[in-house]
Every structure is written in structure tokens, then in C-alpha cells.
């Protein structure tokens, strides 16, 4: 099928590449000329495992191309995906200006064509309930006829950064929101190769599809904040959150995913989407109380390790050197948006500490935020030289089994604050560490 992917951010690039991998012809459109040049030269602007392999194959075989020319994309495509940013506005609701402006430009281009080909306009961005209707209005205002010349579809994505290619190629489910049978059939044809193992394509109305996306992210975020509160209570009563997790996860109604306590959720999705759904409630005279608490617990949890380090030094960290392992918001990405590590670093700097950071992928992205305010280490061990404490913010695999004797020798004091529970507290005590983790006895 002929596809245009409007927006080459993380979602657009992964989706465009994976559609091309299934034999579709995909033109990706972006207004950022530098980015398009970079992509044309075979360079990916993001780090995402496996993406490079599929990107190289599909660009070299000509199924995946890039342009800044929206008209080229629209002329090429029967399926036009909008994968544009929806940043939180000042009041927490999603800012739809990118989506609606692009829809307006696409509508004008289609309205000026000689033929009257039928198009699907597909929202892939995470957008508030009712956005498909707003996009439809924009198209109609340009004189286009819904059902004849176009239909609008909501098709939310459920990709996790770090495993996005796998998630796209083998989704648990595909959600298609449309009230048009023709649109549903085209979308089903597009996605059938991705669900050959029998996972469902769920076809619902537009508003339900939009709500599914927010409900999915919000329930996952709720699980994390819930487990973080259980962890905090475990510390007070002498229980161990890891054992509690194992015990509850065997109940198939609960399951084993997204029950890891830590230093809170970050990334470009959970904080933004939970806030936006809360805001949708407010706009509809509904106070979604759980979501408010989910966010408050998360804010508190992201501050936790900085508070612990400051307490450890009796409130005075001036001149103390803190090594941070892990800067990305989670492993296998260089994405630092809403990363707990950055909140911890900011609090430590404000309190007068010196910070040295190490991350396998996210040093450059962190440098863009903190510049020279912190130091950056070339490898995980040299970050420790002369540091007073080590703080672990992201559970990269390389941090799970380090040479602990070397870690101990390099640190000025053998003190570790572990925000991701990567070590066994008993072994750490045996090795002479002062070790503090989340929700487990020291
Ligand atoms: C999330 C969802 O998992 C995807 O399904 C969704 O498509 C995506 O948002 C989106 O809306 O685009 P992502 O933000 O990439 O994906 O990352 P997750 O793996 O979900 O992790 C989010 C945060 O939760 C991370 O900071 C992670 O450290 C934290 N987390 C996750 C925990 O603290 N505990 C857990 O048990 C799991």
C-alpha cells in the first residue's frame, strides 16, 4: 500500500520503517530539513535497537524515502498517517496545533487535486478523545466529503522505547478506531501481516480508540505508582517489595508486568498522558482522583534518592561528589525526557553537590540539558573515581553485574543508593557496602 508518514519523530520513524518492511511504499515527511537530510544520508536521529537494520534495508531497497515536501507525501499516499507531537500545553491538556495544522494543509492539497481519490487520514499521535472528529471538521472545512474523499481513523500506538521495532512488528493487539467499514477494511488489510500469530485487530469507534490509548498508559502508570507506595510502606514495616511482587504476580488476574518499584516513571508518554487524561476529566466536570495521586506519588518518588543522599550527609552535600549511573529514563534508549535521573541531578546541584554522570547512550542528550554543570565519564568505572557515593538511576544491563570490588575501591566511601534494585542487599552488606535500595531491608 502507499503510505505517507507525517512526522519523523520516534513513532513516525519506527512505524514508517516497519510498514516499509512489510512491503508497503512509505514516504516520510518532516518540516525539519536537517533531519530529513540526515535521514536521506542514512543516519538515524534516535537510538533504538534494531531500527537501523530495517531502516537501512528499506531505504536501500527504495520502499522508505524522506522528504520535506508535504505535497509529495500526499500525492503518493492512500493512507496518510499523522505522527506529530502533542506536547502538554500550559494547563496540562495536549496541544493539538501540530496535528490540526497538518490536517489543514493536507486537506487543502487534496481539495486542489484533479482526481477524487479516497484517502485515509490516520491519527497515530496520542490525542485527546474527540480529536478524530476535529480532524474530520478540518477536512470538511476544506470542502472535502467524508466517506467519499476521505475518512479519519484513530490508530493509537503501543510501542515501548527500547523494544519499539519488536512491539510494532509483533503487537499484542492493533486498535483501529473508525465508524467507516471501508476504512476498517483498508486498515485491517494493512495490519494483517503484523498479526499472523493470531493477535487481535480490535475495531472500535474513534472515541473509544482514543480513550484506549490513555487508559492503557494510565493503568500502567497507576501500577507503578501503586507499587512505589507499597515499597515505601515495605521499608517502614520491614517487608521486601521484591518478594511482595513475586507473591502477587502469580495471581493471573494481576500478572507479572509493570510491578517493579523504583524511582518513578519518566519518558515522553506516561507523565504527559496521565496528566492529559486527568485534564480531560476536568474539562468534562469529572475529577479523576486516582490519576492525581498517581502523578503526586511519582513526583515524590523521583525526588527520593536525592533526599536520601542529602540526608546521608546530614543535610550538607556541598563539595560532595555524586556519581550517577544511568541518565536515560529507562534502559536501551538515549531518551532523557522526564528522566528521574535529571530530577535527582537538579536537586543535588541545587543542594551544592558535584555530579558526574555515566550512561551507555544518553550522555549527549544529557549534555544538551546540563552542559558543563555536571561532569561526564567515559566509562562506568571512571565515573566512580573519587566519588563519595554512587546513585543508580537506570537499570542498564551493564550495571547488574559489575566488578563490585573495583566499585568499592574507587569510591571514596562504599556507599550506593540504588533506585532500580539491581543488587542483592545481603551480598552488598557482606562486601562492606552501605547499600540502600527501594522497598527492601538494607
Ligand atoms: C510507554 C508504554 O509502555 C507504551 O505501551 C506506549 O506506547 C508508550 O509509553 C507511548 O505512549 O508512546 P515507554 O514510555 O517507552 O512506553 O516506556 P515503558 O517501558 O512503559 O516505561 C515507562 C517508565 O516506567 C520508565 O521510566 C520505567 O522505568 C518505568 N517503569 C516501568 C517502572 O518504574 N516500573 C515498571 O515496572 C515498569
UniProtKB/TrEMBL annotation:
Keywords: NAD, Oxidoreductase. It comes from the Bacteria. Pathway: Nucleotide-sugar biosynthesis; UDP-alpha-D-glucuronate biosynthesis; UDP-alpha-D-glucuronate from UDP-alpha-D-glucose: step 1/1. Residues 323-425 form the UDP-glucose/GDP-mannose dehydrogenase C-terminal domain. It catalyses: UDP-alpha-D-glucose + 2 NAD(+) + H2O = UDP-alpha-D-glucuronate + 2 NADH + 3 H(+). InterPro entries: 6-PGluconate_DH-like_C_sf, NAD(P)-bd_dom_sf, UDP-Glc/GDP-Man, UDP-Glc/GDP-Man_DH_C, UDP-Glc/GDP-Man_DH_C_sf, UDP-Glc/GDP-Man_DH_dimer, UDP-Glc/GDP-Man_DH_N, UDPglc_DH_bac. Its EC number is 1.1.1.22. The active site is at 269 (nucleophile). Substrate binds at residues 158-161, 213, 258-262, 266, 330. One of its GO terms (biological process) is UDP-glucuronate biosynthetic process. NAD(+) binds at residues 30, 35, 86, 126, 161, 272, 337. Gene3D superfamilies: Cytochrome c1, transmembrane anchor, C-terminal (1.20.5.100), NAD(P)-binding Rossmann-like Domain (3.40.50.720). One of its GO terms (molecular function) is NAD binding. Signal peptide: none annotated. Belongs to the UDP-glucose/GDP-mannose dehydrogenase family. This is UDP-glucose 6-dehydrogenase. It comes from Longimonas halophila. The lineage of its organism: Bacteria, Pseudomonadati, Rhodothermota, Rhodothermia, Rhodothermales.
Amino acid at each position: 500500500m502507499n503510505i505517507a508518514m507525517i512526522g519523523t519523530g520516534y513513532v513516525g520513524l519506527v512505524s514508517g520503517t516497519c510498514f516499509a518492511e512489510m512491503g508497503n511504499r512509505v514516504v516520510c515527511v518532516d518540516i525539519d530539513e536537517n533531519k530529513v537530510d540526515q535521514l536521506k544520508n542514512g543516519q538515524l536521529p534516535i537510538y533504538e535497537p534494531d531500527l537501523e537494520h530495517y531502516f537501512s534495508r528499506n531505504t536501500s531497497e527504495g520502499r522508505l524515502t524522506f522528504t520535506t515536501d508535504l505535497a509529495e507525501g500526499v500525492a503518493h499516499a492512500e493512507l496518510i498517517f499523522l505522527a506529530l507531537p502533542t506536547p502538554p500545553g500550559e494547563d496540562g491538556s495536549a496541544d493539538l496545533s501540530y496535528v490540526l495544522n497538518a490536517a489543514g494543509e493536507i486537506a487543502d492539497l487534496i481539495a486542489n487535486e484533479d482526481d477524487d481519490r479516497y484517502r485515509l487520514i490516520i491519527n497515530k499521535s496520542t490525542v485527546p478523545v474527540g480529536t478524530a472528529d476535529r480532524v474530520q471538521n478540518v477536512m470538511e472545512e476544506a470542502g472535502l466529503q467524508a466517506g467519499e474523499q476521505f475518512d479519519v481513523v484513530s490508530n493509537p500506538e503501543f510501542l515501548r522505547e527500547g523494544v519499539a521495532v519488536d512491539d510494532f512488528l509483533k503487537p499484542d493487539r492493533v486498535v483501529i478506531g473508525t465508524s467507516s467499514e471501508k476504512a476498517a477494511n483498508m486498515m485491517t488489510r494493512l495490519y494483517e501481516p503484523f498479526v499472523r500469530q493470531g493477535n487481535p485487530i480490535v475495531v472500535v469507534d474513534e472515541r473509544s480508540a482514543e480513550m484506549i490509548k490513555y487508559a492503557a498508559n494510565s493503568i500502567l502508570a497507576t501500577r507503578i505508582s501503586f507499587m512505589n507506595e507499597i515499597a515505601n510502606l515495605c521499608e517502614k514495616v520491614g517487608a521486601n517489595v521484591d518478594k511482595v511482587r513475586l507473591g502477587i504476580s502469580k495471581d493471573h488476574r494481576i500478572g507479572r508486568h509493570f510491578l517493579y518499584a523504583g524511582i518513578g516513571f519518566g519518558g515522553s508518554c506516561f507523565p504527559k498522558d496521565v496528566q492529559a487524561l486527568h485534564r480531560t476529566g476536568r474539562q468534562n466536570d469529572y475529577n479523576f482522583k486516582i490519576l492525581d495521586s498517581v502523578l503526586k506519588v511519582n513526583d515524590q518518588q523521583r525526588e527520593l534518592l536525592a533526599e536520601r543522599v542529602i540526608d546521608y550527609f546530614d543535610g550538607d552535600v556541598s563539595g560532595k561528589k555524586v556519581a550517577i549511573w544511568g541518565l536515560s529514563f529507562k534502559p536501551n534508549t538515549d531518551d532523557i525526557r522526564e528522566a528521574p535521573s535529571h530530577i535527582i541531578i537538579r536537586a543535588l546541584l541545587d543542594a551544592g553537590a558535584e555530579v558526574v554522570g555515566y550512561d551507555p547512550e544518553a550522555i549527549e542528550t544529557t549534555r544538551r540539558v546540563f552542559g558543563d554543570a555536571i561532569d561526564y565519564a567515559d566509562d562506568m568505572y571512571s565515573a566512580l573515581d573519587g566519588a563519595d557515593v554512587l546513585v543508580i538511576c537506570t537499570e542498564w544491563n551493564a550495571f547488574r553485574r559489575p566488578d563490585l570490588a573495583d566499585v568499592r575501591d574507587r569510591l571514596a566511601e562504599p556507599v550506593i543508593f540504588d533506585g532500580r534494585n539491581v543488587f542483592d542487599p545481603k551480598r552488598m552488606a557482606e562486601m562492606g557496602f552501605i547499600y540502600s535500595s527501594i522497598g527492601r531491608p538494607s
